[in-house]
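ok so I'm stuck.
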Amino acid sequence: MAKLEERRVGQYVIREAGPADADGARSVILDTFYHVFGHGYRPQWHADVIDMDGVYFSHPRQALFVAALDDEIVGTTAVRADGPKSPPHAPWLAERYPSDTTAQIFRVYIRAEHRRNGLARELVDMACRFVAATPGYDTIYLHTNADIAGAEPFWNSVAKQIHDGRTDPGHSPAVHYEIPIP
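replied:
not stuck anymore, here's the structure
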């Protein structure tokens, strides 16, 4: 599949990532795990961060997107052919969003000093256009940690909330969303 055309947002470039972007993207993602989420790298959740080539660059139905300022990667977003897992999420979510037909948005992270420039919105839009151009997907799904400042208002502005896991004490407290395929 051909790469999507890059876009500009002010002085930033938004584009589909390639192997040359891996170190910069990995830095943004790992800094988010350690400094924003506070839990660090967890192999059971974050294997894609180490094997970006196998997960994103060599897989025709998955992709990583980056926001760059000059040569510095300052933001990321990813698409994976992967629905939510139960556990930790409710079983009905895993049934509603099967991995073979669900495109899941992951790793929407922007370095703090570059937020509020429209980068996340543009990265998510590019990811959704990738899904629309990729055969086999019928749904775009994501979940977020609403305890992260700005996460819930952002996702409420671009997606439809389908389940608030904070009201379900038996499962992950993530908030779950769906985005229509453009």
